[in-house]
Design a protein that fits this description.
Blueprint lengths: L12 H18 L6 H5 L9 H20 L24 H21 L6 E3 L11 E3 H27 L3 H8 L7
Antiparallel strand pairs: 1-2
């Protein structure tokens, strides 16, 4: 997805990292423009991914990383029985509700990152097979990981959206920026 992330003010590493995280969040949000709930939940490929499922996965994932950094329990803990629910809307969940939920997470992340004394501050990783034993990561690492995770899934979202209705990321960027009707 081609978007321009503005240059940070000299020495504003936090602002630069948060801007790159937000640019990737925007790619996911744009992939849902103009879709019905049914379209957003559809799985146009042979896999289980849907656009609304990606939205939920990323919103919950960002909250989980925030809670790890805050060293607080997450409200969205998943186990083997509920893991698949993190990739699909269930019950009365809707895309607008999930976007609103994510907006709240984003506000919390930005407030928290703004309040930490240093991006070098670290927090422990949970005991899991995919993390090193007794591992710790910095706030900077977490933000870079969010860029990585969101960018990976933004690519998935581009493919899913184009498979649904042929709309490309470029068209969605133009629409979101108010350029779609210009000649």
């Amino acid at each position: 997805m081609v978007t321009h992330v503005p240059a940070e003010a000299h020495g504003d590493e936090r602002g630069a990292l948060l801007s790159f995280v937000e640019a990737q969040r925007g790619a996911i949000r744009r992939s849902l423009l103009g879709l019905t709930e049914e379209q957003a939940a559809s799985r146009p490929g042979v896999g289980e991914l849907s656009l609304s499922g990606l939205l939920k996965h990323l919103a919950e994932g960002e909250l989980n990383w925030l809670r790890m950094a805050q060293q607080r329990p997450s409200e969205t803990v998943r186990d083997e029985d509920t893991w698949a629910d993190s990739f699909r809307l269930v019950g009365d969940e809707t895309v607008p509700q999930m976007l609103k939920f994510w907006d709240g997470v984003v506000a919390e992340v930005e407030e928290f990152i703004g309040s930490v004394p240093s991006l070098d501050d670290t927090f422990p990783l949970p005991d899991a097979p995919w993390f090193p034993k007794d591992g710790r990561v910095s706030m900077r690492w977490m933000l870079l990981h969010l860029v990585e995770e969101f960018a990976r899934h933004a690519g998935h979202a581009d493919i899913l959206r184009e498979s649904l209705d042929g709309r490309t990321a470029f068209e969605l960027v133009a629409e979101a920026g108010g350029y779609a009707d210009r000649t």
